[in-house]
Amino acid sequence: MQGNLVHPNEKTYFTISLVVSILIYLSLILSIIGILYIILGFIITTLFHGIMMGSIRSNGVKITKQQFASVHEKTEELCSKMGISAIPDIFVIQEGGVLNAFATRLLGRNFIVLYSDIFELIETGEEAELEFVLAHELAHIKQRHITKNMLILPAMWIPFLGNAYSRACEYTCDRMAAYYTGNVDAAMNGLTILAIGKSLYHKVNRLEYITQSKAEGGFFVWLSHLLSSHPPLPLRILELETMALYAEVYGFTSSREAVVEHL
């Protein structure tokens, strides 16, 4: 089952990125200056990342058994299903209306950061959509994407290559989140929320949204896609709709009638 959930492009682009990164590391190691660059780069990256996480940890609201206990319990359930032994620290921060979340790692500890506007889904009856967001970020941890990104850091700076790998990882995490939550419809709703917001997402005609995306072409649309770390939201929704049509292959149930209607 795991093999079905990992997007095939993830393996391909990771292999290419790993080979490229190893070659770059070897070329740098051949000189003393190169070794210093590697060490300095690692120190600077860790320092700035540590400062950012220090701010989040000192200002954000941490999800615990005493703080938003239902979300903490759901996280424990998801970690158990996904085979994640150490539950990551989850913090909620306010970012001025931005709908976002991310997973990260610092000095051996995994973190998930939820922006408050996406976390507020628990107040509007969209707990299943928030669960998808959580499962998506947990999938990054399960797949060790953060560690792998550090390993292939030189390749991640190469135009198109690093972004292609990142986009494939996003498809993988969408698949895993839909599978482990067992709710592909909530997964598609979650992505639609990222497109238009929490109030209007249920009014969006997803078929029209996907058709619109396919109709928008040209050089700059193509270039923006290649330079983006995330696939366009309509393509991510379409990927999940296709997954829902073949739900039995992935071993979960879905509202097939709703999916067929959108397609």
From TrEMBL:
Localisation: Cell membrane
Main location: membrane
GO molecular function terms listed in the Swiss-Prot or TrEMBL record: metal ion binding; metalloendopeptidase activity
Pfam families recorded: Peptidase_M48 (PF01435)
Membrane topology: Multi-pass membrane protein
One of the protein's GO biological processes: proteolysis
GO cellular component: plasma membrane
Cofactor(s) needed: Zn(2+)
Transmembrane listed as a keyword: yes
Keywords, in A-Z order: Cell membrane, Hydrolase, Membrane, Metal-binding, Metalloprotease, Protease, Stress response, Transmembrane, Transmembrane helix, Zinc
Presence of keyword Signal: no
Textual note on the cofactor: Binds 1 zinc ion per subunit.
Annotated family: Belongs to the peptidase M48 family.
Protein name: Heat shock protein HtpX
